[in-house]
Amino acid sequence: MEYRFLGTSGFKVPALGFGAGTFGGKGPLFSAWGATDTAGARRLVDLCLEAGANLFDSADVYSDGASEEILGAALKGRRDRAILSTKLTLRAGDGPNDVGASRHHLIGGVERALKRLGTDYIDLLQLHHFDAMTPVESVMATLDELVRAGKVRYLGASNFSGWQLMKSQAAADRRGGSRFVANQAYYSLVGRDYEWELMPLGLDQGLGAVVWSPLGWGRLTGRIRRGQPLPVGSRLHETAQFAPPVDAERLYRVVDALEAIAAETGRSIPQIAIRWLLQRPTVATVLIGARNEAQLLDNLGALDATLDETQMARLDAASAVMPPYPYYPYWNGMFAERNPPPVPAALPIGGTAV
């Protein structure tokens, strides 16, 4: 296993981690992701630990807390071998204060997560979204208190915009408190919005990307092809309304490129899609999710794949999309004399969405 620094924290995480959203199977979204029970989770955790993929990510809302409970049970007796990551701020109850980043909800949410996970500390606590109703100074002060109390070791954000991240970092800096070192973000060959603002911010502010849904909500498994209906069993039948749309022709172009490079390298299509991410700037760890051992072992195989510059460029070109204003002048080189882009320029596309 390759280990990488989590931003500028000085703490190393595995290049591949495990997303435990498939544990539990409660609710309309998470039941479509998977319904792994404790016995099944223990076997998947075994395989991850054997491979060195010892970062496990969950959230209080994953299957109404069942994901954390199952993960904690699967790690019982070997907590010291794992890096535990979880998230909160989304609504996790019916009460008026069971949501957001208020002091009340953050402290209470951490206590409940610790109990479900069966541990006395969380390695990486991430806010699941920005809370515009709570002063950012209060949010960062409360998070810093949790770090100083030893209940949390590192902080991250998820689903934040660039200005929300920078406002949070500035608030932490003003009081000399703990900053975010991780940004859990959606990023894939068919979801490259992360590159427009969040990737440059990550480079500037020392934020390591914790990538979720590296296979584009199941679109890059190799089972979705031009002119064919969604395959039976695809979770997109149940989750498409939650997923960002993707231009159909662009998706097929990406899958074609993945298929060609998979054939050249003797690897699977998912392995190539994950390997592309592992070779992108700021990426600290890619969270792989699996409903069974075969999926997990295949995804872990991405570590053994390598892509040369030509293959990376082919995938870049197949997946390229024009960023919106004000990003496209920076990415297309108009301001390159003073603002060199961190990755190749994007190109416009058109078509229908799927």
Keywords:
alpha/beta, 37% helix, TIM Barrel, two-stranded antiparallel sheet, single chain, 13 helices, 354 residues, 8-stranded parallel β-barrel, globular
Short description:
With 354 residues, the chain is α/β, with parallel strands linked by helices.
Note the run of SSEs as H and E.
Answer: EEEHHEHEHEHEHEHEHHHEHHH
Q: Quaternary state, please?
A: single chain
Summed over residues and divided by their number, the pLDDT gives a mean of 92
Shape: globular
- As laid out across the biggest beta sheet, the strand order is 3-4-5-6-7-8-9-10
Please report which band the strand proportion falls in: under 5%, 5-15%, 15-25%, 25-35%, 35-45% or over 45%.
5-15%
Helix content estimate: 25-40%
CATH T-level fold name: TIM Barrel
CATH superfamily: NADP-dependent oxidoreductase domain
Residue ranges: pLDDT <50 for 5 or more in a row? 349-354
Q: Could you tell me the radius of gyration in angstroms?
A: 20 Å
Secondary structure class reads alpha/beta
- CATH class category label: Alpha Beta
Quick one: how many beta strands?
A: 10
